Automatic annotation (TrEMBL):
Designated name of the protein: MOSC domain-containing protein
Listed PROSITE patterns: MOSC
Pfam families attached to this UniProt entry: MOSC
Residue span(s) of domain MOSC: 29-163
MF (Gene Ontology): catalytic activity; molybdenum ion binding; pyridoxal phosphate binding
Matches recorded under InterPro entries: Benzoxazolinone_Detox_Enz (IPR052353), MoCF_Sase_C (IPR005302), Pyrv_Knase-like_insert_dom_sf (IPR011037)
């Protein structure tokens, strides 16, 4: 059974590692009360770089506790819930194997999987790991961005229940593998999920599919 082990909210931090804005909400800490998830984001959270984060299809981000454990061993760091910048730390699931457009009920909210996280320099800077973007991309277990279809409160301990899965069968990991790992062999399969992608990400994926088909 997949459950929420922690619901996390941002503590805005500043520093040279925080990119062009000099501040970031990637550092998230466990909340001690239920948190409201809405179509525009997570109540009490903070998004600093609204050019790249905070769209409706990035209302929340979920990451696996098992992946925090993996990176703790890999990097020799003690990573805890919220350290990947996630609003929801999940246990008992490989979230990156979820399907694009898959719908979850958690607590009082209904969430829809929209796509993978793409690692960036701010993430690498926050963890203070040169080369993390490349390492994270090669590993390929990115966690998932979520849209909120039905607002509601979520608490630690809530079960993650799958309400529906699209027929196309395209996993978040497969979309990431095509767009970020160069897996051109997946182009035809990933094309099936285009209608379930947010418009901006759909255009990017469609371009990669077209490019892969042209060179096949």
């Amino acid at each position: 059974m997949s459950v929420v082990s922690s619901v996390n909210l941002a503590v805005v931090r500043s520093g040279e590692w925080a990119g062009r804005l000099g501040k970031s909400g990637i550092d998230k800490r466990p909340a001690d009360a239920p948190v409201l998830f809405t179509e525009t984001g997570v109540q009490g959270d903070a998004v600093c770089d609204t050019e790249h984060h905070g769209a409706w299809y990035q209302a929340a981000y979920a990451f696996d506790g098992e992946e925090l454990a993996h990176w703790s061993v890999e990097l020799g760091k003690d990573l805890v819930p919220g350290n990947a910048g996630e609003n929801l730390t999940l246990t008992g699931v490989n979230s990156t194997s979820a399907l694009i457009g898959e719908r979850w009920a958690i607590g009082g909210a209904v969430l829809r999987v929209t796509g993978p996280r793409q690692p960036c320099r701010v993430f690498a800077g926050f963890w203070d790991v040169p080369g993390l973007v490349k390492k994270f991309t090669q590993h390929g277990r990115t966690g998932v961005y979520l849209a909120v279809e039905q607002p509601g409160e979520i608490s630690a301990g809530d079960e993650v229940r799958v309400l529906s899965r699209p027929d196309h069968g395209v996993q978040v990991a497969e979309l990431f593998a095509l767009t970020m790992q160069g897996r051109a062999d997946l182009a035809g399969h990933v094309a099936g999920c285009l209608p379930d992608l947010p418009e901006k990400w759909r255009a990017t994926a469609a371009a990669r599919i077209e490019s892969s088909s042209a060179t096949a």
